[in-house]
């Protein structure tokens, strides 16, 4: 994901140098919205599909284990021989592992929710920038470069997320897995905070440059202010 976005931004810059400033501005907006975001959304959707598939399988396994334990009639544990106790312990431990992994997947789903919110905010910000007349082409290009950096970090977040998902196939310890999940979660929140703070700064600058009641009303509608 990181490599794809880097190559994309380099190609974008090279194309834009061949275009007039105003035309390049419109070109950047269109391409970033339709292509760069699409790549991140596709990666997030893939992560969601993997989580949903794995969760369904784990929930089915959990049900089987719970039914098996129920059939062992726990009230008769005292009469079991050593072999029965070993079997019970094995099923009990497997059930605990399954429940533990399901809880991890729930945390990952929460992280994906944050990432989807970031993408939504990012798309809205670019659409607003496309319609806001209060930024010069040079300013708009600078804003887009900053948004490009934020989008790059969003791609990195997805890479980290996929690493978390694949970690369940390795011998990674629970402590390491929790640390990785926490790291990705914190990165997502910082990314979201940076994007929203940047959007707020741009909104304030645009409103400061707004003149006339009609234009103020237009900008308030554009930015969703009431």
Automatic annotation (TrEMBL):
<protein>
    <recommendedName>
        <fullName>Conjugal transfer protein TraI</fullName>
    </recommendedName>
</protein>
<feature type="signal peptide">
    <location>
        <begin position="1"/>
        <end position="26"/>
    </location>
</feature>
<keyword id="KW-0732">Signal</keyword>
């Amino acid at each position: 994901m990181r490599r794809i976005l880097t190559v994309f931004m380099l190609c974008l810059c090279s194309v834009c140098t061949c275009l007039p400033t105003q035309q390049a501005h419109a070109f950047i907006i269109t391409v970033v919205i339709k292509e760069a975001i699409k790549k991140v959304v596709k990666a997030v959707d893939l992560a969601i599909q993997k989580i949903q598939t794995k969760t369904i399988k784990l929930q089915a396994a959990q049900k089987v284990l719970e039914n098996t334990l129920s059939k062992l009639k726990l009230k008769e544990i005292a009469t079991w021989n050593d072999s029965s106790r070993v079997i019970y312990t094995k099923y009990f431990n497997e059930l605990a592992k399954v429940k533990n992994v399901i809880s991890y997947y729930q945390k990952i789903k929460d992280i994906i929710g944050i990432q989807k919110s970031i993408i939504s905010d990012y798309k809205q910000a670019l659409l607003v920038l496309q319609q806001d007349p209060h930024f010069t082409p040079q300013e708009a290009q600078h804003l887009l470069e900053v948004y490009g950096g934020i989008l790059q970090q969003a791609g990195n977040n997805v890479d980290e997320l996929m690493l978390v998902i694949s970690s369940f196939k390795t011998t990674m310890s629970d402590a390491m897995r929790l640390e990785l999940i926490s790291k990705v979660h914190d990165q997502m929140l910082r990314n979201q905070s940076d994007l929203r703070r940047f959007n707020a700064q741009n909104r304030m600058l645009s409103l400061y440059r707004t003149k006339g009641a009609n234009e103020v009303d237009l900008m308030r509608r554009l930015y969703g202010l009431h």
